[in-house]
Design goal:
It is built from six helices and seven strands; from the N terminus they run E-H-E-H-E-H-E-H-E-H-E-E-H. By secondary structure, it is of the alpha/beta class. The protein has two domains: 104 residues, Formyl transferase, N-terminal domain (Rossmann fold); 81 residues, 3-Layer(aba) Sandwich (Rossmann fold), CATH 3.40.50. A seven-stranded mixed sheet has the order 3-2-1-4-5-6-7, with helices on both faces. Helix 1 packs parallel to helix 6. The longest helix is centred in the C-terminal third of the chain and has 24 residues. The radius of gyration is 16 Å and the shape is globular. The relative contact order is 0.16. The structure holds 5-O-phosphono-beta-D-ribofuranosylamine (GRF).
Length: 189
Amino acid sequence: MTGLKKVKTAVLISGRGSNLYNLIKFSKTKKSPILIDLVVSDKKDAMGLKYTRKNKIKKKIIDYKNKKTAEKDLLLILKKRKIKFICLAGFMKILSNSFIKKFKKKIINIHPSFLPKYKGLNTSVRALNNNEKFSGCTVHYVNSKLDSGKIIMQKKVKIVKNETPISLDKKIIKEEHKLYPAAILKVFN
Ligand code: GRF
């Protein structure tokens, strides 16, 4: 991306924000094609919001009591700030079809399983209950079906003897922090 302007990006979160933090660090590197200009949360007390203050990034809390008005507000701020790319990072709301259409192939998500296995929540608990040999993480484009868009990159994580959901989640999140930047580079290169 040398010589080119970085793409104005919004990261959408609902909680801890470790992927947000990781993406902020990545976005500051020379090789990053994205610039994080906005962080959106549907929860005003999302822990990840602390990273906006430290890094002087604009934050916006969207009230999701009503999904239609929430998405209207979201679109408004995205337009206002000329956002061209969206990274979902632990965002717990499902975006509507009409919203996704407006950002076709411009919204990506990270998911803590080796998709198409274990879409949805509690992925590690379910993988362990099924005696899987591995789980993993996946970065994919967002389409109208939950965790089902085209896969950009994924990484397997081995499940060892005596693995617990906590130990497995720890291994997966570590891989997520490598995978998300790598997938973003892949999208833009
Ligand atoms: C990650 O495991 C991500 O894959 C999933 O939600 C979790 C968010 O973690 N979509 P964090 O808020 O980025 O720490």
